[in-house]
Design brief:
A two-stranded antiparallel ribbon has the order 1-2. It is mostly helical and 180 residues long. It is globular. It has one domain: Four Helix Bundle (Hemerythrin (Met), subunit A) (Up-down Bundle), CATH 1.20.120. Helix 1 packs antiparallel against helix 4 and helix 3 runs parallel beside helix 4. The termini are far apart. It is built from six helices and two strands.
Length: 180
């Protein structure tokens, strides 16, 4: 159940994020698109480049945590050298996160739902959760927080995005109207 909830949801939203960056490049060619990576919603918030890095890390962390494996050092969300410096690097990080999700077996995270999981924060605070608690109360909110912050930064900086850009995967569910 955890796998079928987390993996497709994160992968489709990462694909949407990549599409938002495509739109940003189309609407703000060259240096203007690259400058978006430094844009912030507020002075005390991280810029777009960091939001993209964080959303990619948040998409991959559950793969390891729910399997009881250590999160690789390469997924250190605060590694400043790993923040994308270009739109191409941002899209490469997104593609790598999607590839990691696509590699998870169909039931690869399901056994963790009732398993204990300790989540230690850099501040020294720690949380004791089950795998299901971790997914619902930490992983999903963290992922969507950084995803929506990236969306808001792009919108706030003039990239023409709307609901269809946020949920492009819904197009596959469209039913054609049947004449009365």
């Amino acid at each position: 159940m955890l796998t079928s909830f987390i993996v497709p949801a994160y992968a489709q939203m990462l694909r949407a994020l990549s599409g938002w960056l495509d739109k940003a490049e189309a609407q703000k060619p060259g240096a203007a698109a690259e400058a978006l990576l430094a844009a912030r919603l507020a002075p005390d918030m991280f810029p777009l480049a960091v939001q993209i890095r964080f959303v990619c890390v948040q998409a991959q962390e559950p793969i390891f945590r729910l399997r009881g494996e250590p999160v690789p050092a390469t997924l250190d969300a605060r590694d400043a050298e790993a923040f994308p410096g270009t739109i191409a690097e941002a899209k490469a990080q997104i593609a790598a996160a999607i590839a990691a999700l696509d590699a998870v077996p169909a039931d690869g995270l399901d056994g963790a739902a009732q398993q204990p999981l300790a989540l230690a924060m850099p501040s020294g605070m720690a949380f004791d959760l089950t795998g299901a608690d971790y997914a619902r109360d930490w992983s999903v909110p963290q992922f969507y927080f950084h995803l929506m912050t990236a969306y808001a930064i792009l919108r706030n900086n003039g990239v023409d995005l709307g609901k269809p850009d946020y949920v492009p995967h819904m197009r596959s569910y469209v039913r054609q109207s049947v004449p009365a």
